[in-house]
Amino acid sequence: MNTGNKNLAINGGKKVSEAPVLIHKPYLDEADFKIADKTLRSTFISGDGPECREFEKKLSEYLGVKHVLFMNSATTALEIAFRVKNFPHGAEVICPDFTYTSTAVAAAYNNLKIVLADVYPDNGSLDVSKLESYITKKTVAIAAVDYGGIPAEMDRIMAIAKKHDLYVVHDTAQSIGSVYKGKKTGCQGHVSTFSFHGTKNLTTGEGGALVTDDDAIAERVKILREKGTDKYSFLTDNKDRGYYEYVDIGNSYVQSNINGALGITQLEKLDWMNSERKKIAEYYKKELSGIKDLDFMRITEGSDHNWHLFGILVPAEHRYWIMDALRAEGVMSNVHYTPLHRNKYYKDLATDENMPGSMKFFNRLLRLPIYPSLTETERRLVVEAVKKIFN
Fold it and tell me: pLDDT at residue 241 above 70?
């Protein structure tokens, strides 16, 4: 790699693209605009409305699970996933070091102790070979994460959880539509949590869902997400005469009917959107394979990836220079997360030496643009910029 190459834009050469190739855009079409307009005009715009219920029903059918509960974010879904179990204060939750803060902070918010676990250096998923080493008498749960949409090794994780009688919260925020061992993600853990943030494959602007096959968990979550009331059953069964009861502690985590409506039309085209992402990923892999010192993230055996992110693994010593060089060429690139222990809130939980896989993955990872509306011209420009930088 010639960092002094005068042809590179970072060194004063001509850019590959004058207009920036953005790293992400949400995919929205006329169906989304029409259903949002229709729902607004209905005047039912508050939470847990008919469109929310319809979205939950359709998503449960798509995922093959019994219960989908739409919420205002995946972060709140994670928080409730731990709160519903009433674990004792100070009980331990094993969480991957390489994840977004929501995975861990949800446990901390419930007064649980976070135990950081190392990840594989080639895809950021929990290193299952090390998982049992973190289990103590205080361990009550494991939080598994599908980083970038690549499913974690959930069969092995669930086997360990069963052996030690542990609860598994599967953070599937990025993996909607991904398949693991023949089933959509969302079916593997005791509870799964999806995100529908504006950056996700399926977006409702802001939003998330808690997914489970456990009836008891689902019934309590319905109460916890609606301020501790039995409003869900009141609206469904209408057994009482104009009132519902306050039966538990809770908060306001329901989502607007407008967002629920958007979920319906987004779900209808999810498989198409994911297939477009796959085409882009296959093009990148075809064009960039064989470049010295550039590797691709490993996809878990037995899984079908939704290509939420397209990551390349580059030489650690040049990672930030490559990112800046790509941006100078007009192709937006970024690192994606820092290991939790590298952040102020979690800094006392682990060191770089404790997390060799996490640090190796972090030091090599760069993210390239991938989304359904990325044009063929833009895809070619991304490839051209990467090849130019790697000579």
Answer: no
